[in-house]
Amino acid sequence: MLNLLRLLKPLAATGSRKAIALSSSGVLRGRTFSSNARPAEFERNVVESHYGPMDIPKVSLPEYIFSPDIAQAADKPALSCGSSKRSYAFGMIHEMNRRMAHALLSQKGCAMQKGEVVGLLLPNIPEYVPAIYGSLMAGLTVTFANPLYTPEEICRQFENAGVRLVITLPVLLPVAQIYKSKAKKYRGTVSIGGQHNVQDNIFGFQQLLMENHESELPVIDPEETAILPYSSGTTGMPKGVELTHNNLVANLVQGTHPEFAKYYRPEYAGITETILTIPPFFHIYGFNAILNMCLKTRNHLVSIPR
Questions:
Q1: Taking the chain, what is the end-to-end CA distance rounded to the nearest angstrom?
Q2: How far, in Å, are 61, 93, 171, 196, 202 from residue 193 at the CA level?
Q3: Which end of the chain has fewer CB within 10 Å, C or N?
Q4: What is the 8-class DSSP label of residue 219?
Q5: Angle (nearest 5°) at CA 283 between 114 and 137
Q6: Are 245 and 220 in contact (CB under 8 A)?
Q7: Averaged over 279-304, what is the pLDDT?
Q8: At a CB cut-off of 8 Å and minimum separation 6, what does 238 contact?
Q9: Which residues are within 8 A (CB) of 56 and not within 5 positions of it... i.e. 6 or more apart?
Q10: What stretch of H or E contains 8?
Q11: Which residues, in sequence order, are bridge partners of residue 95?
């Protein structure tokens, strides 16, 4: 409380008022109003990068990652599992993304609706990409959880995010079934490595893609929410963060300057490197700075599931 009073004291001295509100979802929101502040005062606090401004394209994350040269990289290795050695080229991954998107929206498939939330409960495996990008191409929002969390922790996050469908592995199906018993309007579970089970509303991932479902993919506004990553809960209960397609694309564009991104230098044009990834994809750094950056630069990423 003492620290808070010290923080607010300068505002009172300058005639400012601090309005703080706590939303129903537990997100702290605050705005500062000043009656005698001038624009010039704020300009002095703007820090500009010496690298210069970057042009942020107004596109969805799937469009940014997989367009426009994906056809030229179709035969290049994209993702490999360091444990099983299974591997996919960029062309195959892109086709899996497309088929997954159609299956998620198809009335004969998962019957999801644009804007609904998919929960990923997966380790680092190559199929993570069609799971998340198929969802994003379908206009869905994705939240991902640590598969080592307890069922209670996973259910809390998924309930908070409003998850309607879970994508996971056969070994984690019991956790998905626990969440299913708690969820409202639950549409099903996709099992990577599993088979269709109509009775339990489980879709086998491979079967789902091979059925080649048809549906109309929506136009995605870059300002729509793409993912809902959650904090680890170090200083309290885990909290979700809404990140739009534009947020993620802007962050990736920040890493394209040739002075610190070697893959955007002329001498690296056409060169493919094999990169081993350790950070988990369910962490925002592992997802955007590792997985997405490697996909965008058409490098070969090797994942380790555990």
A1: 43
A2: 27, 16, 10, 10, 12
A3: N
A4: P
A5: 25
A6: yes
A7: 96
A8: 153, 156, 157, 230, 231, 232
A9: 246, 249, 250, 253
A10: helix 2-13
A11: none
d(CA 167, CA 177): 12
Phi, psi of 7 (to 5 degrees): -70, -40
| pTM for the model | 0.84
Look-up of token digits 């703007």? 46
Give the residue from 89, 11, 65, 27 showing the smallest Cα distance to 241. Answer: 27
Q: What is the pLDDT of residues 177-198, one digit of tens each?
A: 999 999 989 999 999 999 999 9
Which comes out higher in pLDDT, residue 36 or 102? 102
CB atoms within 10 A of CB 93: 22
Separation in Å, CA 173 to CA 128, 210, 217: 16, 21, 28
In the prediction, which pLDDT does 141 show?
Answer: 98
Tokens found for residue 305 = 């599931």
